Amino acid sequence: MKHRHLGTAALCLGLVFLIGSVVFRVVATPALVRFPLNVDETAQYTGTATTNVDPATLLPLAKPKTEPLSISRHVKVVSGTFDRAVIDETVTIKTGGTTNVETYQYVIDRRSMQMVSDPRQYAFGNPKAVMDAAGAFRVTFAMGTNAKGNYLAYIPEENAVNRLVLVEGAHTHPDAHIKVLDFSSKLNGPVAPYYLAHLEQMGLPMHVTAAQLAPVLAADGIDVNRALADVGPLLTPAEKALVSATLAKSVTLHYIFLSDGIISIEPHTGALIDVHTQQQGIAVQPDLSGTSVLQPLFTKYAAIPSVKALSDGLAALAKRPAQVAESYKYTQTVPSSLTATRNAHDHVATMNLLEVRVPWTMAVLGLVLLGLGLFGRRRGRRTDGPGPDLPTPPTVESEPLTIEPVASGPTRPRMPQGV
């Protein structure tokens, strides 16, 4: 009887552990394996910065200036809930004696690691400078990143996303000594309005006058003054007024952000182990669309060589790619990559504990208890026999047998009848 009761208890407990292992893996693990809310990390990068133009005049330098470059990227969680984490990113760029600080705030889904649409996601501490980064990655990448996956990287300087391209499958990082996947990220586009305001604060010009632009055009073989001198006597009063009004207008400068680099991702956690660029920086391009009003004059006086040269030069310049003003080339420092690797190892250990060890331990323990339970019940049947399993018939009480006493005295013999 005792063995059978113990076997039943073991069977019930085994089922509890088996069901618990499934529930833990399906429900508890996704709830526990999430982006941590105590992240406070700094990555360091070193390289060179090359300046190609004079920031004040935009004239190409006779010899590009190259200076040492150091970049610090500080990432810290400032608040969070079960589903989301609010993260501050501060990028400090030092080139020679110049320091440039950029600040961004992201809101990510703590399970998918993707950015979400949230009004708290903005640039330079300005809640009005909202970033449109939903669905993309920046701080970290997806848990379980794989070589065949499609991932979007967010470029805050452009407020744009681009699709990562696999460069190299799983391999061991030469410095960090951890398995990584390499993806390239390349996107050159107009800077975001908030980043344009940042460039203006740094002292870069937003507009130039025709007089300021003349030396730039001259460097490209476009002699505006010569053309004006040659055509001036032939212009009607209305044409002269049109030329004067056009030259009086300032020319808007468009800034392009250059981004071309490779990132190394630890696939299990999605952690960034290394970031290095081939080129990152700023290019500038004057907006010459305002000169289109002069095209009828260019056509009318095309027989004048200097006017024809001016017309062709402006058309060619309008189609020319933006001129690189300043560019960076850098790589993550080895100590910084090693720190990222240690953090990734710690995260992997936690994930393995919650995703594999705990549920599998519960499952194995449940199976062992099921086996012990079945064994206990079988043993109980052998030792106790079938009696206990059969109903005991009820007992029937019988009344005691009583003998009445016979009266005492002499007994008269009976005589046979007929005598």
Spell out the blueprint of helices and strands.
Elements: H1 2-32, E1 40-53, E2 60-80, E3 84-95, E4 98-109, E5 152-155, E6 160-163, E7 165-172, E8 179-186, E9 189-190, H2 193-201, E10 207-208, H3 210-219, H4 224-231, H5 237-248, E11 251-265, E12 272-286, H6 295-300, H7 305-319, E13 323-332, H8 334-384
Antiparallel strand pairs: 1-2, 1-13, 2-3, 3-4, 5-6, 7-8, 8-11, 9-11, 10-11, 11-12, 12-13
Structure characterization notes:
- The structure is a single chain.
- With 419 residues, the chain is of the alpha+beta class.
- The protein folds into two domains: 2-28 and 362-387, no CATH class; 33-332, no CATH class.
- Helices cover 34% and strands 30% of the residues.
- It has eight helices and 13 strands.
- It has helices at 2-32, 193-201, 210-219, 224-231, 237-248, 295-300, 305-319, 334-384; strands at residues 40-53, 60-80, 84-95, 98-109, 152-155, 160-163, 165-172, 179-186, 189-190, 207-208, 251-265, 272-286, 323-332.
- The strands form two sheets. Strands 1, 2, 3, 4, 7, 8, 9, 10, 11, 12 and 13 form an eleven-stranded antiparallel sheet that branches.
- β2 and β3 form a beta hairpin.
- The longest helix has 51 residues, at 334-384.
- The chain is elongated and about 125 Å long.
- The two termini are 79 Å apart.
- The relative contact order is 0.16.
